[in-house]
Amino acid sequence: MAATLPQPRTRISPSAIRxxxxxxxxxxxxxxxxxxxxxxxxxxxxxxxxxxxxxxLFLRFLEKDLEHSMKxxxxxxxxxxxxxxxxxxxxxxxxxxxxxxxxHNAYYSPETIYSxxxxxxxxxxxxxxxxxxxxxxxxxxxxPKLPQKKIDVLSPxxxxxxxxxxxxxxxxxxxxxxxxxxxxxxxxxxxELVGMKMADMDWERGVFKVFGKGAKERFVPIxxxxxxxxxxxVQTFRPEPARPDIDNILLSxxxxxxxxxxxxxxxxxxRKACGVQRLHAHLLRHTCGVQYLxxxxxxxxxxxxxxxxxxxxxxxxxxxxxxxxxxxxxxFSPVDSLGLTYRRFGRKKNVENGNGGEKKSx
Length: 362
Known about the structure:
By secondary structure, the chain is mainly alpha-helical. It is 48% helix and 5% strand.
């Protein structure tokens, strides 16, 4: 009887070994690799903080609610779906916050849930592209629909009310007047406002350079009135910088650059002083976009100086412009403003007898 020959051992490729090893990695370690890659791409500190927060919540959900093994190989789409479902109802926020009290029966906004789904899908795509998984494991995780919110803008009366509440003959007042007019005229964000540098300002041409989201550089035009208010602050009220390397246009009283948080507090105080309770920095940006289109500007140039990466957001301003025109007509209707009464147009026709006159009484 012939002897049975030993079967040759199946060789495992190095790539298969690496793939098997990666599936044994803790999910927390993979997320750290992902955040490092995003940091190297130049994402802002704020964006990275949001990513870390959203993915950290997902990790804590796996650890606490699902008692997951926390290895990459055990992760599937059902875990992500359970995480999203846990946020679509009443929740307790700030449960373990060291300073703030917990908030019971609270609800996450649709925008918050949307951002967390988006970040999970982004992580899934990155793991696939980097060879951690054979496919994007969250590719079938659907993005929730966001409500179509109308863009809110300030009326001309509210703008006048805000400006009338500012004393431009003081350091704080001159700075606030310049800030409001610049944001209304250019639509720049609060972060871009505090980042404005003297070296990036072309006073003669009326244009300055800003670094927007994703460290994208763009040039923004500024009108005569806003430029004059800003120049008046610089020439008359701007303090001496606290250090030679400080080149920011807007400075605190002690000569340091303003922060976005400082802008938030300043807007809060201005809101109380002027009585326009819905005032905030981004509302000035929205007002700029709509007023630009109402005045005859085009969406392409608006997209460029507002710094929108796609025309989708700019089209929201276009839609609101049409509503604004209709509302203005209702408010300033040429005929309605004459104060004409209904009786001037004759008596109401009698539809019942069809003779165009009043119905005769018996």
